[in-house]
Amino acid sequence: MLPEPHRLRRHSDFSLTVRRGRRMGRRDLVVHAFDRAQADELVSSGGPRFGLVVSKAVGPAVIRHRVARRLRHICIDLVDVVPRGTDVVIRALPGAATASSRDLEKQLRAGLLRLDLLAPVSNSA
């Protein structure tokens, strides 16, 4: 389970991130990111917060919950690497229902990398 301080809960936070943040589309996910320091209002600048949007287009409830659980698990590993004060909304597309957890993680990391929220992984051996 994603710890409470790292979860987006309010509709206004989701809306702000989706409407005013930057967006990067991948095959099975769309990643929206918003730097809370850019907000007009005074907002706490704690660690990164993640929110999920998994609509009925993804599939029936069992599939939607499975996709959400996979994405939450991936987000737990990203808490320490995404910059503080960043809100991230992950919107699952219908293909996420059949994608493996590894594919979802690759797509999410690629989206965050393109949004300059992750450092590139060096393959030095």
TrEMBL record:
<comment type="subunit">
    <text>Consists of a catalytic RNA component (M1 or rnpB) and a protein subunit.</text>
</comment>
<dbReference type="InterPro" id="IPR020539">
    <property type="entry name" value="RNase_P_CS"/>
</dbReference>
<dbReference type="GO" id="GO:0001682">
    <property type="term" value="P:tRNA 5'-leader removal"/>
</dbReference>
<dbReference type="Pfam" id="PF00825">
    <property type="entry name" value="Ribonuclease_P"/>
</dbReference>
<keyword id="KW-0694">RNA-binding</keyword>
<dbReference type="InterPro" id="IPR014721">
    <property type="entry name" value="Ribsml_uS5_D2-typ_fold_subgr"/>
</dbReference>
<comment type="function">
    <text>RNaseP catalyzes the removal of the 5'-leader sequence from pre-tRNA to produce the mature 5'-terminus. It can also cleave other RNA substrates such as 4.5S RNA. The protein component plays an auxiliary but essential role in vivo by binding to the 5'-leader sequence and broadening the substrate specificity of the ribozyme.</text>
</comment>
<dbReference type="GO" id="GO:0042781">
    <property type="term" value="F:3'-tRNA processing endoribonuclease activity"/>
</dbReference>
<dbReference type="GO" id="GO:0004526">
    <property type="term" value="F:ribonuclease P activity"/>
</dbReference>
<dbReference type="GO" id="GO:0030677">
    <property type="term" value="C:ribonuclease P complex"/>
</dbReference>
<dbReference type="InterPro" id="IPR020568">
    <property type="entry name" value="Ribosomal_Su5_D2-typ_SF"/>
</dbReference>
<keyword id="KW-0819">tRNA processing</keyword>
<comment type="similarity">
    <text>Belongs to the RnpA family.</text>
</comment>
<dbReference type="InterPro" id="IPR000100">
    <property type="entry name" value="RNase_P"/>
</dbReference>
<keyword id="KW-0255">Endonuclease</keyword>
<dbReference type="GO" id="GO:0000049">
    <property type="term" value="F:tRNA binding"/>
</dbReference>
<keyword id="KW-0540">Nuclease</keyword>
<keyword id="KW-0378">Hydrolase</keyword>
<protein>
    <recommendedName>
        <fullName>Ribonuclease P protein component</fullName>
        <ecNumber>3.1.26.5</ecNumber>
    </recommendedName>
</protein>
